[in-house]
Predict the 3D structure of the following.
Amino acid sequence: CGYVGERIYCWGGDTSPISNSKPTLDGGNIYSLNIKAFSGQRRERGKPTSIVLSDGKRFMIQGGNTPGPYKYANQTIIYDTSLNKWTKGSQYSIENVGAKQIYSSTAVNLPNGLIGFYGGFEQYANTSVPEISGNGNAVTFDSNNSSYVGFSRFTTHNTDSGTWSPFSPQASTLLDFYPTSQTATINPRTGKIYYLGGNYYATTSNWVPIKIPFNWAAVFNTQSGTWLNETMDGNLPTTRMYHTANLLPNSQDIILYGGSEDGQTASGSFCYTLNVETNTWNKHDAVNVPAYLSGPRFSHSGTNYSVLVDTTLFILFGRGVDGVLDPSLLTIDVANATNIFYTTTYASNKTTNSNEPNSTNSTQPGGLSKGAIGGIVAGSVVAGLGIIAFLLFYFRRQKKSKQQDTHESMDVDWDRIEDHYKEVPNVKLNPPQFTESTELQQL
């Protein structure tokens, strides 16, 4: 899900149980807009990378994991909300290797309309050209010719020119570190990108996934082009994946929401903030989400960030404590990083998030930014592990029935809305080292 074109759009997704989960995304249909199928191949996509572009009008879907024995003809597709149109973007490819089909990577908006990608896996890799890790070991392939290497170094994409290139200068790379299921959050004030949680693979670990603890983070400094390992302290979150992370408005705090420690159930401790000035974690136990709405979530919102509009964080769909699909929508007040709480009302805030490149201060009386509430678009919903059919009347019925059960007032104008992986070992390892090599080494 993403806030684009002054609306919240959700697309794609999957409704299968975890035990049979094959994440899919059908990029040709958003119900309320009745978008026609993309004029290329219409393919399901598992765990693609999606991001709202900095113009605030378009979102891009890159890569994905195909359920069948094929590569996508259109690796990158872009939807323009102002034109109600899909277009084909340029694919990521490497000389002498060819196009790379990457999934479970991360993406962040950079200045000048660039997007920065990192991490993930590659499906149907060119096995004749294995990558050489910074320690000199060759990266192997699995039985399906997939690679543990997605974007092995920080790579930028210009959607206007269609060019892909390694970020330059990039003085160092992580030595033997291939991450997935992590989040990426940029702090525009410092140019630092924080990669939090998830798992990583290494040539020296027999490709067994290693959980990434929250007492350190791989950080890429876009101002100097260097990788850092930054140490964190405070009330640390437990290791997890399928969480989201957003930089809070006019703040130096990143909010971490949800996640799963085992890939099957949601973590009971679901809300933390990281102050990036002190690198200190704080746990928030008083969010007070009603039990029937399930505060604990994982694979919500379908990206590595939740939807943030003004000072309201939208937690959309995903899976709850027991791993069952949860179609409910949560609204979290994040105006104050020290006092984060569930709210039953959407309050407009004229203070915008100056940290976000595509933020807007267009507001309406008594509501969110213009179109933010009414623009929740019914559709096939990306939920990471979880397509959810999103029918707005369901929420009104759910609201009424839950009110009867809990006697709680829900001051949400639903009519206005209608209008407008397996278990991984908990191995404690030191953060990855760096190599000064600036070239992508290959056999």
Observations:
- The chain has one domain: 2-420.
- The domain at 2-420 is CATH 2.120.10.80 (Neuraminidase).
